[in-house]
Amino acid sequence: MNRHAPTRLWSASPLTRLALLVALVLSVWPLYWMVVIASRDTSAASQVPPPFLPGGNLGTNVRRALADESSHLLTGLGNSIVVSGTVTLAVVVISSLAGFAFARLRFAGRTGLLVVVLLTMMVPLQQIGIIPLYIAMVQLNWVNTMQAVILPFLVNGFGIFLMRQYTVQAVPNELIEAARMDGASTWRIYLSVVLPAVRPGIAVLALLTFMQNWNEFLWPLVVLQPDNPTVQVAIRGLSQSNHGQDYSMIFTGTLLSIVPLVVVFAAFGRQIVGGLMEGAVKA
Amino acid sequence: MTRVLRRTRAVALAAVLALVATATAACSNGDDGLDANGNIVLTVKVFGGAGFGYDNLVKQYEKDHKGIKVKYQIVTDDYDNEFRPQMLQWLEAGSGAGDVVGIEEQGVGQMMSLSDAWADLSQYGLNSRKKDYPSWKWELGHTGDGKLAGLGTDVGGMAMCYRTDLFKKAGLPTDRDKVSRMWKDWDGFTKAGEKFVASGVKSAFVDSPNQLYNTRMIQEAGKADGISYFDRHDKYVLGKNKAVRTAFDYIKTLNSKKIIGKYQNLSDEWKKAMQADGFATMACPAWMMGVIKDTSGKSNAGKWDVATVPGGSGNWGGSWLGVPAQSKHPEEAAKLASYLTSTSSQVTAFEKISAFPSSVKGQKDPKVAKLSDKYFNDAPTGKIIGDSVRNFKPVYFGELHSAVRAAVEDVLFGMVQGTYSPSEAWPKFVKAGQKVVDTSQ
Amino acid sequence: MATTAKVPPRGTLAARADLKASPYLFVSPYFLLFALFGLFPLGFTLWVSLYNWKLAGDKTYVGLHNYRFLLGDDGFWGAVTNTLGMFVMATVPQLVLALLLANALNRRMRGRLALRMGVLLPMVTSVVAVAIVFSQLFSHQYGMINWLLSLLGVDRIDWTAGKLPSWTAISAMVDWRWTGYNAIIYLAAMQTIPSDLYEAAALDGASPRRQFWHITVPQLKPVIVFTVFISTMGGLMLFAEPMMFGDGRLDGGSRGDFQTISLYIVQAFRERNNYGMAAAAAWLLFLLIMIVALVNYLLVNRVRGTK
């Protein structure tokens, strides 16, 4: 992964080790505490001093949270998988295509268009344009539909930028020239030369996009209804609804909302760290 | 590398599946208001910490009416900040409102101003329900141009809930008749608070400024001309209204004596305090008793009791059910609304969540009038609340009342919390409401 | 090329069309979507902002009234102050801590990967979950943080009362989620710094701390600018954290101490039914982002210039 000669590293001093330990504890603590409350009963959140060890009610609480009719947590989890998955797939395709074009194809207006992409990276247009987007969704009768939460997030300038950087690095011009000599069309080159080469980049982009959309809150909150939420809106509903006082259940909901991400992280954490580090340097 | 590759494939596959799922979901999400089996689906949207108490009624209705399915949704416990704005958005957007929806008293002015948004219930023969209601409750369910748009559910008869265990610790009487006598009027309430604070018991005496403020304000307004934030021409008159000022100053006085807890009602902190002995008394509209039961939970059963409210009478809250014009099955929805607001349904709801019937017959029903509540030390809640609404005079709530309320109560809470000094609080209070009026034009 | 015979005539019409058209086809999906969901809403926002616009019913042209109102409204200026204040409070410590953390992680020790994954863990949590958990931790009477403070003899702090406490609590949520992420990015960049720079410095007797400030930090400048840039976008759009911290309401506390511009916008159209004013506030937010982005851009140029 690291192509550079390894830097001679200082050995960590005891103080550094201690600082890292503190950082690790702080990083993990809120998550641990989430588990503690989620596995106890209702009163745990208002106890002083607070409880520090998990209880035995996690299973019950999970069942209660999933069965809670007013928060629609299960629907929320399903919807979020659909929305984040669809957006991720589409963004990967759109970005790798455009990234390839910007990196290795020559066409009039390339620089200008690339500047436009970079500019769009800076502005979260979905949030600025929330009012007309909502008005439009009302007109289209798309309020409370999945396409309403999917389509606006397909615009992702960062993805193009990232894929362009990856393509520049991973696909030398000679490779493309060679393929052209073999008579490959541009589309074929994209499929059989570019795509295989930029796979690590795609993995990073996919993970970041999935995570970003999993956490999207404002727009789904506005355009979806409480009975058909995404996961973030659902756990907000869980904390606001008639069970607003049941903290063990709310925390169980928050715990369930991160399970899919944590599973991915646990399975591919090494690659995520590696991919992120590699991606960061390229970006 | 290969692992990454395989994973990419898996992710892509999942996404494709997801895409297909979306497409099919979008298709089956037809908006004819029918489910897959051709049943008519009616969505009931309500609010409140304990909802409207319709769970069993809805099941019964489905059983009695083949071909009709009812989705009963409790959207949120916060009417002013959450349910009302959302409902407004759905009504204006032309979809999403549901088929039968709850309208709270403080928002009834705004909802009835949107005449086009509601189905005319008189078209479905529901003018016949007039005899069930006191005239004010019936009249308030009409739009500005006289359309019958809402059928009354409950009224918010007032009581005062208190914690016997904390009262005992503080050396206050615990027997509900003695307590009622102790705070026959508001001065008595103040004195009880002072005594409680002096005892050194750690809990706050009053839960939050907001609950008590509303109780007093509506009581004073009812005694006077029935006006609070807006006059009957919907002019913003909060700054000049005596009832409002009296209630505000009362909170200010109590606050200076440290009698009020630093909790905002319905907030997380408030709910936790309710579970953890955070406060000893709470103004209790009938429906609030359901909230207490739900929130403070089994571990606090028997610690709460119910006394009369200082000043005797009062009403806070109470609701209507309306049928949005956007409903695909307005006739069936109207029938369901009529069923849910019928006298017997109101009695059932009272038994379930303590929502006091607005139906005249319902109030006299022995199941209501004689009801005592185990959770509250067998307090005769039916009688206490019934007495409080007997002499009650209705208060007018303007179109923007609920929105103004949310804003000014922030200032009121800020005074107790310390973000506003007591001297600046009143002018800010008036200004906060004015700003809502200005920005809502 | 072993099979030169197979090379097709490169000048055929199809091949030329492919060469000419493919690039545009490849970038067109993005620009199509951008026009529909980026450019059009932006323009339409401007249009709506000039009206007294209700979702249903009349729309009356009011010119610049909405802008005049906002610029004269202390609530809106409060939201601007809060947004910028929380942005600075969240970003500066976050990036400094991330740098120090990256430097610490860039040492020889056992369990390095576990440590890296550990500090990255907060990033894979979900935003509302974090906000709910932290709101509990910062609870006035029942929160763990006030409990710890009380053990130290410090009075309980009402974290929702006043700008400083609420900004601190909300910044803590943001920092918790993103410090590890930025640290990993810095760490990656650190590993590309040529080792001879350090070796030369070590020969000159420079301490590790001196090396950090005189070699590592200057070498990381472009990456630091990049992270500042990313944090800016998140910071100026802050919505979920202050909303959940304020009990799910849009008012940002009893005095609006932590109402951000995003909360203000949503309050304007959701609670006041005033789409015109919300649109005007959105445009002012857009301008604010442009200004901050411009400052960032000048910063980048300056860094490039000095290199």
Verbal overview:
- The complex is a heterotrimer of chains A (283), B (441) and C (307).
- Chain A is mainly α.
- Chain A contains 14 helices and no strands.
- Chain A has two domains: 5-58, no CATH class; 63-282, MetI-like fold (Orthogonal Bundle), CATH 1.10.3720.10.
- Chain A has helices at 14-38, 58-67, 73-104, 110-122, 125-128, 130-140, 146-150, 157-170, 173-181, 186-197, 199-214, 218-223, 231-240, 247-282.
- The longest helix of chain A has 36 residues, at 247-282.
- By secondary structure, chain B is of the alpha/beta class.
- Chain B has 19 helices and nine strands.
- Chain B has helices at 2-28, 55-64, 79-93, 108-113, 135-140, 164-169, 176-182, 186-198, 209-223, 242-256, 268-275, 288-296, 330-340, 343-353, 360-364, 366-369, 381-390, 401-417, 422-439; strands spanning 40-46, 68-74, 100-104, 150-163, 204-206, 279-285, 304-307, 315-322, 356-357.
- In chain B, strands 1, 2, 3, 4, 5, 6, 7, 8 and 9 form a nine-stranded mixed beta sheet that branches.
- In chain B, helix 9 (209-223) packs antiparallel against helix 10 and helix 18 runs antiparallel to helix 19.
- With 307 residues, chain C is an all-alpha fold.
- Chain C has a single domain (65-304), classed as MetI-like fold (Orthogonal Bundle).
- Chain C is built from twelve helices and two strands, in the order αββααααααααααα.
- Chain C starts with 12 loop residues before the first helix and ends with a helix.
